[in-house]
Amino acid sequence: MARVYMVRHGRAAAGWNVDPDPALDDLGRSQALEAATTLVPKGRMDVVTSPLLRCQQSAFPTATAWGVEAVIDPRVGEIPSPEGYSLENRVDWLREAMAGTWAEVAARSGAHYGTYRDTIAQAVSGLRTDTVVFSH
Asked: Are 91 and 15 within 8 A, CB to CB?
């Protein structure tokens, strides 16, 4: 059975209400290096990342140290906002969503987030080798 390490991206340079795909800030880059320092001694693994820049930048030090290319997989991307939500409203919606269950998220937002959850589970359960996944 493959071992999967799920790593949240480092701190972004901007919030969701400012930039939908921000880079890492100085602390985030430092966190990415710290993640690599922790992971690299575990031995070479595959690296998978969300398509968003902050995840790709978080994955870079680990992938580089192992000499592997990070595979971009949209299935491990950010949870989608309900239709019609602006960037400004996303912050409040996301905080509320993360405080509840998948069923509560779906009930409040009028969307089916079970599909999102199942897609991530499918992506991770399909991994056949030890892998580090950089996500949200």
From this structure: yes
